[in-house]
Write a structure and sequence with these properties.
Layout: E1 9-13, H1 16-19, H2 56-59, H3 63-77, E2 81-85, H4 88-91, H5 102-117, E3 121-127, H6 133-137, H7 146-161, E4 168-172, H8 182-186, H9 194-218, E5 223-229, E6 232-235, H10 240-262, H11 269-275, H12 286-292, E7 298-301, E8 305-308, E9 315-317, E10 320-322, H13 340-354, E11 358-362, H14 380-399, E12 403-409, E13 429-431, E14 443-445, H15 447-457
Parallel strand pairs: 1-2, 1-12, 2-3, 3-4, 4-5, 5-7, 6-8, 7-11, 11-12
Antiparallel strand pairs: 9-10, 13-14
Helix pairs in contact: 3-5, 7-9, 9-12, 13-14
Length: about 475
Amino acid sequence: MSVFPKGFLWGGAIAANQAEGAWNVDGKGPSISDVVRGGIVSGHHDATIDPNKYYASHEAVDFYHHYKEDVALFAEMGFTCFRTSIAWTRIFPRGDETTPNEAGLKFYDDLFDELLKYGIEPVITLSHYETPLALYQEYGGWKNRKLVDFFTRYCDVVFRRYRNKVKYWMTFNELNNMNRMPFATGAVDAGSTPQELYQAAHHQFVANALANKLCHEIIPQAQIGCMLSLSTVYPATCNPDDIFSTMQLRRRSLFYSDVMMRGEYPAWTPRLFREQNIELAIADGDLELIASHPSDYLGFSYYRSVLHQADGEFRIDTGGTVGQDNPYLEKTAWGWPIDAKGFRIVCNELADRYRKPLFIVENGYGGVDEVDENGVINDTARIDYGRQHIREMAEAVADGCNIMGYTWWGPIDIVSAGTGEMKKRYGFIYVDKDNDGKGTLKRSKKRSFDWYKQVIASNGENL
């Protein structure tokens, strides 16, 4: 018997800005992702689009026009859910309008209908690094409280429109990346002050609570979660300074889920704010709103672990913090440590901390895939990575963790958020396109396609 419960959600996850393309089609306005080349993580952008430069995300893998073909392949693998995002600028091209764009609404109607036709539940992120560009240029992004109203209006429109189609929602993608990559997370410039970053985060906490409230009012049967990047971090040594510094680093990541899942700012934040000269503008009723409307579940990404040393240098990418090498771990072709046991540790950490359902909405293997002379892609490293992680997820379920589902990041090759490349591939489905935008966009199955199909068919028993 499988350890995974009946009805466990198996599937894959993408983001609109990394897959759809059609960036200016059918009334869609530009988002912050549309002005970035070389990966949104860096935040390097001109806030304008240079017609003489190539932007990988502008066509991406053209999911906008290929979604029927792609959804049929997901159905062939046996997906019971599929996570994607609604591109906010398809619905409100600038973000501050009062009337939505019908063509954008219709696209997601058609996409959700296609998924439901095959019995695949849509799992929808409301904001996945896709803040409307106008809200950054003219309002300063989430530093400006006006974005709370704009986001709430957008949520109200899509909840009403898709109330009979979407049961699983998430508000902001990887909100804890605000301190690490603020342009992606909050449409706030890199180099912003701690005051600006935490003020932007507070506005997003208020927006998160209002979205939760609206969702429960409009779609009573729905579940709405928050989403964080929670690849983990270990102390580099048993020096108590390293242990305490690592705890602080982790706690600053979990700060975001603490507020959204528990409904209050953690006890240690007044000291942080005092030491960093942060004085949040908190409107009357904000804290009561946050307390009254916490998230139903915690969605999170897990890719790897790192070692951290007090005062040691570390940097950030889409997988999380980059620290020192762990001699006990092998690495992916992209240099990311592979730590499946760390995945089990994180599941238990979060289950103990929040006592609410968990949803693994990103886990996957990014590598370079070679097509052999017979047209076959033997991506055995991807299969090994998936096998190890699903095995440890099963152990976490046996440990008592309440896990709703698992969506592999990038079941089809998409543009990398970290580097803006096609070369870094995650998919079970290969897309013929290179870093320069050349290729036919033809879809073909990798060896991992049939492997994941058997995993789902056996409810995680046959790995």
